[in-house]
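Please fill in the sequence for the structure shown.

STRUCTURE ENCODING:
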């Protein structure tokens, strides 16, 4: 098996041991399989330089000599860094690692980053600067009320003080007539068979593992 053609993806909650597991896997790949490995970090806070407290950013000692990408790549407070920015950089680093015959290991706790990498971003409308200016100029309470009315699912996820994401959600709805949360449902896997309506009693004997293979060459979720 060509190990370097795989892309293991390790995800989970903060302080769940993801980084340690990724480093251990990288060291094992080198020692047992003779393949070097690099880690691509999928964390929306670890990308910022200077944001070290409370982000579980691995220290140089904890990295144990394994190269980590996409840590400290953005200056805190001076740059806007979107999921699209992370996805572009992550794909570049994965391709570069494979090009050098290395095993790229993706690890992180930002679910949106992981979903974007595995399932892609939805094809949203191009930004409409005039509409964005109009939405930004709205009274915060009025803007929030509109979001809760047209896209309650997005309102649950978006903090009332998050103007940028609120404006984008309303922009998508006004331009497409469809809530941004509905666009993003293309990412959601189908429900387990046990939760679907059975058409016939005989169909209840079927089952679904829910396992998926992702990315070119295959990948593994841990």
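FILLED IN BY: designer on duty
SEQUENCE:
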């Amino acid at each position: 098996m060509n190990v370097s053609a795989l892309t293991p993806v390790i995800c989970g909650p903060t302080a769940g041991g993801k980084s340690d597991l990724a480093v251990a896997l990288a060291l094992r790949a080198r020692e047992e399989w003779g393949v070097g490995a690099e880690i691509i970090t999928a964390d929306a806070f670890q990308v910022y330089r200077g944001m070290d407290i409370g982000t579980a950013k691995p220290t140089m000692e904890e990295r144990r000599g394994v190269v980590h990408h996409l840590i400290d790549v953005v200056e805190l407070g001076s740059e806007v860094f979107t999921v699209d920015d992370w996805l572009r950089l992550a794909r570049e680093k994965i391709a570069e690692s494979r090009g050098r015959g290395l095993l790229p290991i993706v690890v992180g706790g930002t679910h949106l980053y992981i979903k974007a990498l595995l399932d892609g971003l939805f094809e949203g409308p191009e930004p409409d600067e005039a509409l964005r200016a109009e939405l930004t100029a709205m009274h915060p309470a009025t803007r929030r009320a509109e979001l809760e009315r047209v896209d309650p699912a997005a309102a649950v996820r978006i903090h009332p003080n998050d103007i940028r994401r609120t404006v984008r959600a309303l922009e998508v709805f006004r331009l497409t007539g469809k809530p941004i949360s509905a666009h993003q449902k293309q990412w959601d896997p189908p429900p387990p068979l046990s939760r679907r309506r059975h058409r016939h009693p005989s169909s209840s004997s079927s089952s679904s593992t829910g396992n998926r293979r992702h990315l070119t060459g295959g990948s593994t979720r841990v």
